[in-house]
């Protein structure tokens, strides 16, 4: 049983590190990231929406913050739900942009997040600042 707990924590931290490194790399090479976004938005048909195009440059910063939450063990459940939603959208967006290899990578990351979310009972030491986690002592 302990091996599963350690494996869960290792997977969560490694996944968080990958998100932080990906976000950091895209921020360091931000002009290249923006050029790739222009190419993607030039190829899409379904997701060619101005609102999405306006928010797309924020993706590296979102990846960094979510990765830090996963590494530090803060808001793990909410961070994983956010990862699932974002990476599902990224997968659909990249399929629409004909970038199937990147879409598959995002699908794998989405699958990892789903497995981590399903196995969250192994995460006994996480910091949750939810309203439900506080006990009111009368």
Characterise the protein shown here.
The radius of gyration is 17 Å and the shape is elongated. It has 6 helices and no strands. The longest helix is centred in the first third of the chain and has 27 residues, at 2-28. It is mainly α and 138 residues long. Helices cover 73% and strands 0% of the residues.
Instruction: Report the strand count.
Output: 0
Class from helix and strand fractions: mainly alpha
Q: Helical amount among residues, as a percent range?
A: over 70%
Low-confidence stretches: none
Order of helices and strands: HHHHHH
Mean pLDDT reading: 84
Determine the number of helices (DSSP H or I, runs of at least 4 residues).
Answer: 6
Major β-sheet profile: none
Distance from first to last alpha carbon: 36 Å
**Silhouette:** elongated
Percentage beta strand:
under 5%
Radius of gyration: 17 Å
Give a quick set of tags describing it.
single chain; 138 residues; mainly alpha; 6 helices; elongated
In brief, what are we looking at here?
The protein has helices at 2-28, 30-43, 50-55, 59-72, 76-96, 100-118. The chain is mostly helical and 138 residues long.
Secondary-structure topology with pairs:
Elements: H1 2-28, H2 30-43, H3 50-55, H4 59-72, H5 76-96, H6 100-118
